[in-house]
Amino acid sequence: MPLNNFTKRPTMISLVATSPLPNLNNSDESSPEVSPVLKPLNCAMDVPPIVTAMDKGQAEIPSLPIPPLKQTLDRYLETVRPLTTDQEYQHTVAAVNAFIADARKNDSDTEHATGWKPGQGQDLDRRLREHARSCEARSTSWLAEWWDDWAYFSHRDSSTFYVNYYFGFQDDTRAPTQTARAALLVSLALEFRQLIVS
Question: What DSSP state is assigned to residue 147?
């Protein structure tokens, strides 16, 4: 078979000039009146999507659920209790109650004391659920965009220590110097990457 046999060329997308190419020497009499118009050739390309081992089955995983508002607030009160005095905790409970109060109640004293407008919690919960439905239509999590924007992209702090706060280093006898430790971390990260992409 000859080396210059090009009968089976790969499918490509190219641009084709549909009018004369301009004369690039600054001569007005030989230049065309209009610039050439380039139009794409439509060539079918069947490229299967690349799915790494880590992303297999991603479409079957259910979306991150939004817990009921009362469950979230009960968990918040349970979490904040050890960190507050009795007086601070009672103020926090009043703020939570105002946050989920009936909007028709219109209790201005509660709003003034806690800073929350009655019914605001229910309104925010309804808006969050609407947002989650719009994300499901786009096949994304309701939290993904906010997490990326606010946990990673909105500041220039080190995400290793300020976002992934359970991340830590232990002394490793295999790497007694900083250079050896850096090399070990890079090699292990590359091993992990190889597991994900293969």
Answer: I
What are the tens digits of pLDDT across the range 147-182?
888 877 887 877 766 766 665 667 778 888 889 888
Task: Delimit the domains of the chain by residue range.
Answer: 69-162
DSSP, collapsed to helix, strand or coil, labels residue 60 as: helix
Percentages helix, strand, coil for the chain, rounded to the nearest 5?
A: 50, 5, 50
Q: Of 98, 104, 124, which Cα lies nearest the Cα of 90? A: 98
Between CA 190 and CA 102 the distance in angstroms is 54
Helix and strand numbers, DSSP H then E, in the chain: 7, 2
How remote is the C-alpha of 104 from its chain's centroid?
A: 37
Give per-residue pLDDT as tens, 99-135.
Answer: 888 655 555 555 555 555 667 888 999 999 999 988 8
Contact call for residues 126 and 103 (beta carbons, < 8 A): no
